[in-house]
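Render DUF4034 domain-containing protein in 3D.
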Amino acid sequence: MFRNLFSRGQRPVEPAVDLDRALDDLELRAARDKASADWRAARDVIEAAGSDWERRARRVSVLSDAAADDTWLDAWLVSAPDDPTAAVLLAATLAERAGRARGSAPASETTQEQFQGFAELSAQAAAAGRRAIALAPHDPVPWIDVLWAMFSDGRSRQAEFHEAFTEARRRDPFNFGVHLAAVSFLCEKWYGSHEEMFGLARAAAAAAPPGTAATLLPLFAHFEYAMREFNWGTPTPEGVLACRRYFQRPEVRQEYDACAAKWRAAGAPRHGDAMVCRNWLALAYSLSDRRDEAKAMFDEIGPYATSPVWAYFFGGVKHGFVHNWRWANGVR
C-alpha cells in the first residue's frame, strides 16, 4: 500500500501496484470471487448499482472479464434466459472475447486470423447487445458493447455508429463509457481524425455537468493525439520526450486544467470511473513535469493502477505507473 506520511529521512515505500480492473469497488471484488460458485452474486452486485449507469457499466465490464474464462454465466443464462442483466453481461463477455481475439498490437502486426476472430465475436457481441436492449430498452449499458462491436469494420458503418451513439445518449446523455467508445471510434488510429476526435470530446466535456467523468474526455483525446503523433508503435525514449514536450505546451495544460477544475467542481468525485480519471490526471501531470500535482494525484489513487493510457507512453500499465510514481515521490 501507499504511505502518504513518512518518518523524517525515510524514503517513500513503493506501491504494491493493484492492476485489478475492479479498482476500489470492494463489493464488486467480493461478488466476482463468489460468482464461480454462485452466479447470483454477479447478478446482485450489478443490480445493486441501480440506475447509476456508469457504476453498472464498470461492474458489467469487470465481470465480463471473469465470465470470459468461466462457465457461471452459462448457468445463469440457462436458469434465467430472459434476464436483462444476464443479457447485458453476455454482450460484454462476447466483446471481451473479441478484444482478446484481436490483441492489442497495431493493425500492421495483427494476423488475418486475429482480425477474423475479432469480426466474428464482435458480430456475436452486437447481436447479444441488441437482445439486451430489447429486454431493457431504458438501459444505456448494452449500447456500449454495440458501439465497440462496430470497431471490427467501422469504415462501412459510420452512419450506424452515429445512430447507435445517439440512442445511447438518449438514455444517458453524459455516460462516460458511451462517450469513451465514441471518442475512440473517431480517433485517427481507428476511423476518424484528430479533428473529429477533439470535436466530440470537447463538445461532450463542455455540455457535461460538473463532477462527471465526461468532463475529462479532452484529456483522453490529448493522450490519443500524442501517442499517435509522437509515440506510435513501440514506445521509445525519443517518443516519450516528444510527448512530454507536447503536454508542457501552455494551451494543452490550460485545457486539461480547465477540465480537471470542472471535474472537481462538485466536490470529491465518487462516480464509478473516478479512479480511471485520477490515473489520467496523474499521467498528465507527470508528462507535463508537474511533480507536486502528480504526487497529490498518486496519493489519491493509492495502489490502483488501472488505465491503459499508461501503456501508451511507457510500454505497460504497471511499468508506467511505477516509473512515474517514483518520479513524483522523488525516488531514484
